[in-house]
Amino acid sequence: MSDTGYGDFEFERRFFVRTPPAELLSEPDPVLIVQSYFLAQDGYAMRLRVQASGLRVALGPDADPLAVLDEVGDGFEFCAVTLKGPMNVGTRYEAEREIDVTVGIEMIRRGGLRIVKNRYSVWLGADGWVVDVFGGANAPLVIAECERSGPVTDLQIPAFCETEVTDDARFANDGLARAPYTGWAAEFARELDIRGPRFLTDFGRNDVQHRG
User: Fold this and answer.
1) Engineering a disulfide at 165: which of 32, 46, 139, 171 sits with its beta carbon 3.0 to 4.6 angstroms away?
2) In CATH, 9-208 is 2.40.320.10
3) pTM of the prediction?
């Protein structure tokens, strides 16, 4: 449980990235994540996640989460089970408990809706950001996320963030587990072309950085 006074809640804003900066992807220690959703419906989710840091595993459209489990094997050093509630204006209930890595891997092997991604971390302005580069059925999707211990207001938004998807359930990881990006990427591209970029106005001032 958080000691910030907000209890088991997370605060985040998420953005679609068309082209991540090359210097970000050259980070030496990305985190490889395989997760499986045993429940993913109506914004409620029960997730198992294993992760490994300090290694590079290429994740193209043919990446299979189970094959990644086999490839990395004992390289996974962390596992947790997480319960989530629906997103509500950048706020979501989340309760997490660390569990034995071996048990978690075997449970992921045995069921759930699986996704795989590489996570890159970067400090931009006043905030830490993570950028998730998905493999398998969600390739080549890239999502950037800023998370704080309280509401994410008055945010400096990096130029590589194409449009905000905080309130778009399709881009939540549990949504991607149920309906992978490749199945509706063309539809989303048309939506974006028609309406253009958008950034939510419920969070105070948006300082959107311009592309150089």
Assistant:
1) 171
2) yes
3) 0.93
